Amino acid sequence: MSLLQRLLVFGVVAMAVGLVARVASHDYGDALTKSILFFEGQRSGKLPLTQRMTWRKDSALRDGFEIGVDLVGGYYDAGDNVKFNFPMAFSITMLAWSVLEFGQSMGSDLQHALEAIQWGTDYFLKATSIPGFVFAQVGDPNGDHNCWERPEDMDTPRTPYAVSKKFPGSEVSAEIAAALAASSMVFRSINREYSARLLKRARMVFEFADTYRGSYNDSLGPWVCPFYCDYSGYEDELLWGATWLFRATKAPYYWNYVLDNINNLEKSSSYAEFGWDAKHAGINILVSKLIKSQTPSVINADKFVCSLLPNSPTASVSYTPVAL
């Protein structure tokens, strides 16, 4: 899990815990503020005037130009200068979900969170702008990892990698669809035109992911593995994307898709798996908010929550000791 992913998971868990318990010796609000600020340090492209990390400058301003596609923008993966779109999309999905659930508690950080989301969605609109193709990555990770340098100074290859009908990548495509759908809900009351654009693209990208099924491990393996191989299969991303599209559209098609495929997820996964690769617990949490009966999804969602509570008999995580 990259530092960016760890910050996101920390942010969601800490926000939830922070709302029910305040610990004087730990400033969780400051930690969450910094977790959002971290996104600004990872920005790629032409930086805006609102950039708070002023020691960062413009970088990678010609991404995609060698093949005639504008892929400028987005985020570098934590610790290197590659744009890995699979975990990046998960980051945007999670940040959008955080704003949907806790935006009213973010205070002045809400605006920064919205800017962080749009920095990602603007890039994903570019990465999905050619029908039949979804760009999955920018930058040669092997060359990048062989030379540690500032993005402002990098001279390593900025090779774009894409999945297509012939060489599918359902996991990266469906995760981008989830990010766009979740973000469309965030911007619905702020910028309806932009929200509608995100949702329209989410529908298109999800259809592509579902129609042309396959893992990007098979088509882009030498460049995405072992960095962000898909180890859990792409079926969870398809369910994750369909669930977010149902939340965003209320269209019966997406709900029926979830109901028709959710049992396959339950047979092949642990209820506690959740991260950029395995979306199982997140799917169960989302579905449990839509179903009131005791289905496997609801039961597994409860198990997941109980596994996080410190005093639960089924607790499976450790917390940093509190200094009193």
How many helices in DSSP terms?
A: 12
CATH fold annotation:
Glycosyltransferase
User: On the 0-100 scale, what is the average pLDDT?
Assistant: 89
* Cα-atom radius of gyration: 19 Å
Which class do the helix and strand fractions yield? mainly alpha
- Tally of discrete structural domains: 1
Shape: globular
**What is the first-to-last residue Cα distance?**
31 Å
Q: Which percent bin holds the helix content?
A: 40-55%
Strand order of the largest sheet: 1-2-3
CATH architecture: Alpha/alpha barrel
Low-confidence stretches: 1-10, 12-23
Oligomer: single chain
Q: Largest sheet at a glance? A: 3 strands, antiparallel
Provide tags for this entry:
about 325 residues; mainly alpha; Glycosyltransferase; 12 helices; about 55% helix; globular; carbohydrate metabolism
